Amino acid sequence: MWSCVNGHANSPGAEFCTTCGARVEAGLAAAQRYGGTPGEYAADYTTGSFAEYIDAMEPETGIPAFPSRPFPARPAEEDVAVTPVAGFTAMLSAPLTAAPEAPPPPSRYPGWADAGGQDRPTPGRGWRDDGPPTKPGPVLTAEALAELQYRKPSRTRMLVALAAVALLGITGITGTLIVMHSRGGAAAPQGAASPSSGRHPTGTARPSQAGVATAGVARWSAPAAIDPQTLQNGTTITGLSCPHPGVCYAADSAATVLTLQSSGNWPVTAADSVGGLVAISCPAKASCVAIDSQGEAIVLSQGSWSSPAPIGSGSGTVTSVSCASADFCIAVDSIGQAFTYAGASAGWSQQTVVPSGQGLASVSCPSTTHCVAVGTGGDVYTYNGSAWSGPDTVDSGHDLVAVSCPSTGFCMAVDSAGLAAQFAAGQWTLHPLGFTAATVSCPAVGSCLAAGSSGMVASYAGDGWSAATTVDNGITISQLSCVALNSCVATDQAGNVLFYSAQ
Questions:
Q1: Enclosing H/E stretch for 456
Q2: How far apart are CA 47 and CA 433, in angstroms?
């Protein structure tokens, strides 16, 4: 039999009564729990017949006849549990008690600090976080750090990172300025045409830079009269030599030597009584040789100038002189002769360089055992300390008018057709200048300036010539002397002087 505590019959296996909702128990267990025997509470559907079940019902109600005695009382301790109303009433009437505090959750990493009292248990409410949003984090042990593969940042790495960020910023700003400068520059003029001779390779002109050669490092001054009080009307500067920054000597056609003073004036320091001066070279501050149109020279030595003295014989006119030291100079003339100065005691000696008599226009001596002379027909001659060799035709069909050699392995010459001939790595090559140069000066290997017609100048910086720039109002610059890359002095045919220097 399956019945509930109130005696209602239920299907075998039911857990709660379908009539009153009480728990259902089976057979003898139910009878023993509430008293009596199974037959006193309900019919056993598993035995007898259905007719017997009908006979047991009362005619009026159809309810099985059960004994009229009351059910036994249930234990008191179960009243609250089995009576929902009574349990709810007891819960409401009971005094409130504090919930037990929950322990902090176990940390995976030992050593979690209290963080200054921000993480701590709060009475009655368990653990809470009452710190600011930026409270310090956990302090981990070495074992926990190793498990996380954590690497503490060092001060060096932080400084390197900051330096890298700063460098990127500086690089970006610099790159922007360079792009702006390049886009803002003027278009460079076209270079001259290549020479007709195919014997020597030619170069190409570089784009024009700000200023002339050093793009913001050095600039040319405006042309100014060299000295109206000392330079007579119609007198031209025929030679210029600057052995040291701020120290320059100029020779003029009126047979005087002018010296640049710190005040900017050019007073006369020497005079030649024989004829107008045509060339001058000064290897040191107090050492110079100037030669006149009559083939005589005056020498500055130990602070005083000598009287004019002949350097040789012949009908030619000296065109150029170069001094490697106070006791060594070579001059060349218009009929292919060379004159060597070996000091005051030895004086001058003469040699024929060009047997045919073709003229030599310029000479440059970087040492006492090496000189280079250039002349008509694009020919080059070399002195080895005792004899001359050549010619080497490097610019066929054109006259080379000036040459400058800062070393035995590097020279630069310019011609009358707007070309420059460079000697480097043992060979000569031609490069277009974009204008006709009259003079060139190279203060160092791979660094040159050229000047000439219409007051134009250009610079060479090892990878080609810059585009020509006008600095002298259309007047031809005839003399140029550079003691350093950004320290040059030039004079023009009108008696003006220009300075090229860092601003």
A1: strand 456-460
A2: 133
Q: Predicted confidence band at 415 (pLDDT cuts at 50, 70, 90)?
A: very high
For the cut 80, the answer to whether the pLDDT of residue 444 exceeds it is: yes
Q: Give Cα 428 to chain centroid, integer Å.
A: 35
Distance CA 291, CA 340 (A): 13
Q: How far apart are CA 286 and CA 292, in angstroms?
A: 20
Beta strands 400-407; 388-393: pairing state: unpaired
How many whole angstroms separate alpha carbon 311 and alpha carbon 329? 11
Distance CA 44, CA 1 (A): 5
Classify 116 as helix, strand or coil.
coil
Q: Encoding tokens for residue 148?
A: 């996380």
Q: Do the beta carbons of residue 251 and residue 280 sit within 8 Å? A: yes
Q: What does the mean pLDDT of the chain come to?
A: 75
Query: Which are the contacts of 71, defined by CB distance < 8 A and separation ≥ 6?
Result: 5, 6, 7, 34, 35
> Helix, strand, or coil here: 441?
strand
Give, for 51, the enclosing helix (H) or strand (E): helix 50-55
Segment 64-118, tens digit of pLDDT: 544 444 545 554 444 444 444 444 444 444 555 555 555 555 544 344 344 444 4
Instruction: State the distance between the two ends of the chain, measured CA to CA, in whole angstroms.
Output: 121
Handedness of CA 316, 317, 322, 323 (dihedral sign): positive
Residues 6+ apart with CB under 8 A from 157: none
CA–CA gap between residue 461 and residue 199 (Å, rounded)? 24
Token pair in block for residue 136? 């310090």
* Residue 232 pLDDT: 72
In terms of residues, how long is the chain?
503
98-102, 245-249, 437-441: segment of lowest average pLDDT: 98-102
Cα separation, 442 vs 423, in Å, equals 12
**Any bridge partners for residue 28, and if so which?**
none
Q: Cβ of 82: how many Cβ atoms within 10 Å?
A: 13
Query: Any idea what DSSP says for residue 163?
Result: H
Q: How far apart are CA 109 and CA 140, in angstroms?
A: 7
- What are 179-188's pLDDT values in tens digits? 333 333 333 3
pLDDT tops 90 at residue 431:
yes
Separation between Cα atoms, residue 118 and residue 109, nearest integer Å = 18
Instruction: For residues 344-362, give the mean pLDDT.
Output: 96
Sheet holding 268-271, edge to edge: 237-244, 247-252, 256-259, 268-271
- Ranges of beta strands (E only) in 50-131 are 119-122, 126-129
The amino acid sitting at 160 is V
Residue 440 pairs in a beta bridge with: 450
Whether pLDDT at 477 is above 80:
yes
CA distance 23 to 3: 8
What's the maximum distance between 2 C-alpha atoms anywhere in the chain?
175
pLDDT for residue 186: 34
